[in-house]
Design goal:
Number of helices: 9
Number of domains: 1
CATH architecture: 3-Layer(aba) Sandwich
Number of strands: 8
Strand content: 5-15%
Strand order of the largest sheet: 3-5-4-6-8-7
Bound molecules: iron/sulfur cluster
CATH class: Alpha Beta
Order of helices and strands: EEHHHEEHHEHEHEEHH
CATH topology: Uracil-DNA Glycosylase, subunit E
């Protein structure tokens, strides 16, 4: 998941194998991957209810009775026609040349990590050839290399890399969520798409609330999404709205009086990490505050 730069070498004309072999398990999958067919980490089944409108997202998010069911419902959502069309077209005929022989998840990226997390990381949206290929947040692109290496250094991740679903990675005490769960064209979800997807994040926050200690917002969009979700939950949020910046911090208070620290970080996108705008030391420093 990331603000991934446009793919310089999409494999749009070569015929795609379908089904194709999962890179870790060797299992055969069609693209997009049908729910409940054995993809590692797939939280859904063929019976998972599918949201096809903004109103259904509200309803299905509210009625999800736990993290597992919430993840399942997110992973089959079809409420944003433009994003459904984009994520599936990339999966079928727009695969990056380097991955052209792999199956593509082609579905929304469910949250990833410890269901009992005390810390949430709030990202932007999946990358077309990252999460949209692997089915796991921040997995399969360079932004993930940065994030998981830092989480491993901080003791949250069991290994420093996240290459593919099924690679054994686990997170302890931390869960990764997102503002928008489907890969958007040019990494730019519309305002309407962000609003349609927000109830999934709201429910993630609600389920985490009894244990939540802190949140790390990656980029200004993640910062705004976290503040918006907190406000909708009825938490006390500072006024005027706290400004995003790397290292910015805001203290939020839940309805039950629990204090939750929101910390801002520049996004781990290549445009920040390649240019040195975000360094490993800077990322380690904000993660240490969680
Ligand atoms: S962006 Fe969110 S609401 Fe829209 S289709 Fe994807 S998961 Fe559903």
């Amino acid at each position: 998941m990331s603000a991934d730069p446009p793919d310089p070498s999409p494999a749009r004309s070569a015929p795609m194998p379908d089904p194709a072999q999962h890179p870790v398990t060797g299992g055969l999958f069609r693209s997009p991957v049908p729910p409940g067919t054995g993809w590692p980490g797939d939280p859904a089944t063929a019976d998972t209810p599918v949201a096809t409108s903004a109103a259904e997202v509200v309803l299905l998010a509210r009625q999800a009775d736990g993290i597992r069911e919430l993840d399942a419902r997110v992973s089959v959502c079809r409420a944003c026609p433009r994003l459904v069309q984009w994520r599936e077209s990339v999966a079928v005929s727009g695969r990056r040349a380097a991955f052209a022989d792999q199956p593509y998840w082609g579905r929304p990226g469910p949250s990833f990590g410890d269901p009992d997390a005390e810390v949430l990381v709030v990202g932007l949206a999946p990358a077309a050839n990252g999460t949209n290929r692997t089915g796991r947040m921040f997995t399969g692109d360079r932004s993930g290399d940065w994030l998981y290496a830092a989480l491993h250094r901080a003791g949250y991740a069991s290994q420093p890399t996240s290459v593919s679903s099924g690679d054994g990675l686990t997170l302890t005490g931390l869960r990764i969520v997102a503002t928008v769960r489907c890969a958007p064209p040019a990494n730019k979800p519309t305002t309407e798409e962000k609003a349609t997807c927000a109830p999934w994040l709201d429910r993630d926050l609600e389920l985490a609330e009894p244990r939540l200690r802190s949140m790390l917002a990656l980029g200004a969009i993640g910062w705004d999404a976290a503040l918006g979700a907190a406000r909708r939950r009825g938490w006390a949020v500072p006024v005027p709205k706290p400004r995003f910046g790397h290292g910015a911090e805001a203290l939020l208070v839940t309805g039950a009086g629990r204090r939750v620290r929101l910390v801002g970080s520049y996004h781990v996108s290549q445009q920040n990490t390649f240019t040195g705008k975000l360094t490993e030391a800077m990322l380690d420093e904000v993660i240490a505050r969680l």
